[in-house]
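Chain and backbone:
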Amino acid sequence: MTISGTSEPGAGITISGGLSVVRTQCDSQGGFSSEVLLKENRLNRLCVYARDGSGNESMPACTAVYQQGGEFVVTDAQLDSSENKILVQFSRAIAVGTLNPNNIVVTTPAGVQTGTLTTADNDMQAIFHRPVEWTFPRKPSCWK
């Protein structure tokens, strides 16, 4: 998203609240324009403030923007059978309030597995916890 505005010529501009803090400088006319990446699927409270050459800082001008993300898919899943869990990696951040173990179906040769789901690390991962050991059918004796 593009954020633009005006302040004193040469003033430093800081934009916070998006995916990262963005810094730019006003041109000789006092104008600025900068691209700000937003956090997907969540409210981004963007605040813009200016700092002049003497170090005086303006009051922030703030607004809230909700960034709707792209397609939500599982990009990777890894089984950790020693801890009865699966680490699930998603294509975008998880909205914690919508995290539900029914949203993910874990199927083994023994059938659908049940468990709990919690977020991990950077809200791009979830952990599917199984309360008991994973069940897999026995290997038929004809398999070598």
